[in-house]
């Protein structure tokens, strides 16, 4: 009898489950099954996937296979997002009574709630997703004037705060990427697990005038598609995938996430079983970053935070992949004086600009083993943080901030 050992992880620990010709155990609630995620060919895998109650994600560790039953409706359910590195965020931010803080990525309000509970402070929370703002109204009622919840992008932090007549703040926190609610809602079109419209615009209806992921794959030429998938997805098969996209769309333009996921999978199917992640993971990440201008938002948001933080104020950023982390790392390395600033806006000889930050999380912090075990999405997280000095802000030169080429191609940065 073939004995197949499958490892389950429970919130409280691990146990082993054996099956041969018949299943010997039932699937438990609140469990995460690594082996089955990675091998959908195993019997029961599809059923297990639909039984999962813990559907936290990591950009680099998406599941194999797709189900429609598990997709959420567009109604926001804020309990589904588990805040990542929350303890460390509070440790770095150190909220204090009377302070004014900015949560630039409100999401399900996990960080916001923790900050408001940690000190008698005021919090300006921002999110570009109208669903997140709608979901947060219950917290506005709960915290009253202490919570100012605003629709918008953190790149526009300066004007958002100016509109509130807030001159400077004591802390800014950014938790980058998408929330579990966004990923789990099929109609948002972020996930290859759930078939939905190929959209990926974080702003949803607020972004109706900007191109969706379908617009991008149906209109860009093969070379640009390959560059986007290669650079933003760090996908080594980018050229092969771009070629296939262009071939397929000649017959029928892409409109659904499943169509794109299948096209990508067909191209790199042979490598599929050697990888922990779904073959479409990197392509979907690339399109999401491009569609939402995520790296430009980050570069602009960091500079806005530098301008708005008062001396002693703290900037805390949690990122989830190397492209984001590289930008934050470079920003803080320059601003803390670790590396010389190379800006075309600086007159020669002025490289010794006084540091505008001190580093308060050397090397970047990563989640505890315990958190990584409990929340798979946290595994790729890295927290970087700096404390604002009294020095002036550095010149704003987005090209010097390490944005990859495609960010310039978009023409959104100056
Ligand atoms: C990872 S979730 C944040 C989760 C949040 N920290 C919590 O504990 O619930 C990221 C959120 O940031 C939002 N977001 C991403 N980029 C943004 C931007 N440039 N401006 C404003 N919000 C953004 C997304 O819409 C999403 O709701």
What Rg do the Cα atoms give?
Answer: 22 Å
**Helical stretch tally:** 17
* CATH architecture verdict of the largest domain: 3-Layer(aba) Sandwich
CATH top level label of the largest domain: Alpha Beta
Mean pLDDT: 81
| DSSP strand tally | 10
Order of strands across the main sheet: 6-5-4-7-8-10-9
Query: Secondary-structure element order, as H and E?
Result: EEEHHHEHEHHEHEHHHHHHHEHEHEH
What portion of residues belong to β-strands? 5-15%
Q: What sort of overall outline do the alpha carbons produce when their principal axes are compared?
A: globular
CATH superfamily of the largest domain: Vaccinia Virus protein VP39
Report the end-to-end length measured between terminal Cα atoms: 65 Å
- Class by alpha and beta content: alpha/beta
What's the SSE blueprint?
Elements: E1 4-10, E2 13-19, E3 31-33, H1 34-38, H2 45-51, H3 86-93, E4 100-103, H4 110-118, E5 122-127, H5 130-135, H6 137-143, E6 147-151, H7 157-163, E7 169-175, H8 180-184, H9 213-219, H10 222-233, H11 238-251, H12 257-272, H13 281-291, H14 294-308, E8 309-319, H15 322-335, E9 357-359, H16 369-374, E10 382-388, H17 405-409
Parallel strand pairs: 4-5, 4-7, 5-6, 7-8
Antiparallel strand pairs: 1-2, 1-3, 8-10, 9-10
3D architecture notes:
By secondary structure, the chain is α/β, with parallel strands linked by helices. The protein folds into two domains: 1-54, no CATH class; 76-414, 3-Layer(aba) Sandwich (Rossmann fold). Helix content is 37%, strand content 14%. The chain contains 17 helices and ten strands. The chain has a seven-stranded mixed sheet, sandwiched between helices. Strands 2-1-3 form a three-stranded antiparallel sheet. β4 (100-103), α4 (110-118) and β5 form a beta-alpha-beta unit. α10 packs across α11 (238-251). The longest helix has 16 residues, at 257-272. It is globular, with a radius of gyration of 22 Å. The protein starts with a strand and ends in a 5-residue tail after the last helix. Residues 81, 83, 104-105, 107-111, 126-129, 132, 153-155, 175, 177-179, 202, 297 line the site of S-adenosylmethionine.
């Amino acid at each position: 009898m073939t004995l197949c050992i499958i490892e389950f992880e429970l919130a409280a620990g691990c146990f082993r489950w054996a099956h041969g010709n018949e299943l010997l155990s039932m699937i438990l609630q609140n469990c995460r099954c690594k082996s089955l995620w990675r091998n959908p060919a195993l019997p029961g895998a599809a059923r297990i996937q639909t039984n999962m109650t813990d559907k936290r994600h990591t950009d680099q560790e998406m599941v194999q296979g797709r189900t429609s039953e598990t997709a959420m409706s567009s109604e926001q359910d804020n309990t589904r997002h588990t805040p990542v590195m929350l303890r460390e965020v509070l440790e770095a931010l150190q909220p204090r009574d009377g302070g004014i803080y900015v949560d630039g990525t409100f999401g399900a309000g996990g960080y916001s709630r923790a900050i408001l509970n940690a000190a008698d402070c005021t919090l300006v929370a921002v999110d570009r997703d109208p669903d997140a703002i709608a979901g947060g109204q219950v917290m506005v009622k709960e915290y009253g004037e202490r919570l100012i919840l605003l629709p918008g992008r953190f790149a526009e932090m300066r004007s958002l705060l100016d509109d509130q007549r807030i001159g400077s703040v004591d802390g800014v926190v950014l938790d980058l990427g998408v929330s579990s609610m966004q990923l789990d809602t099929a109609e948002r079109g972020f996930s290859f697990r759930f078939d939905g419209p190929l959209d990926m615009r974080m702003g949803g209806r607020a972004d109706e005038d900007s191109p969706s992921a379908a617009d991008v794959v149906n209109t860009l030429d093969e070379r640009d598609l390959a560059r986007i998938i290669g650079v933003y997805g760090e996908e080594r098969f980018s050229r092969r995938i771009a070629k296939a996209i262009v071939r397929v769309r000649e017959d029928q333009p892409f409109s659904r996430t499943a169509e794109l996921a299948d096209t990508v999978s067909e191209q790199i199917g042979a490598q599929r079983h050697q990888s922990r992640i779904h073959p479409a993971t990197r392509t979907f990440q690339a399109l999401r970053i491009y569609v939402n201008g995520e790296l430009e938002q980050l570069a602009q948001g960091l500079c806005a935070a530098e301008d708005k933080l008062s001396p002693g104020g703290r900037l805390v950023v949690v990122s989830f992949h190397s492209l984001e982390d590289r930008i934050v790392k470079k920003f803080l390395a320059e601003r803390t004086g670790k590396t010389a600033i190379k800006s075309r806006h600086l007159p020669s000889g002025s490289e010794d600009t006084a540091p505008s930050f001190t580093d308060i999380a050397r090397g970047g912090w990563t989640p505890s083993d315990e958190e990584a075990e409990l929340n798979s999405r946290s595994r790729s997280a890295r927290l970087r943080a700096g404390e604002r000095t009294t020095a002036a802000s550095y010149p704003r030169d987005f090209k010097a901030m390490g944005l990859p080429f495609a960010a310039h191609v978009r023409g959104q940065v100056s």
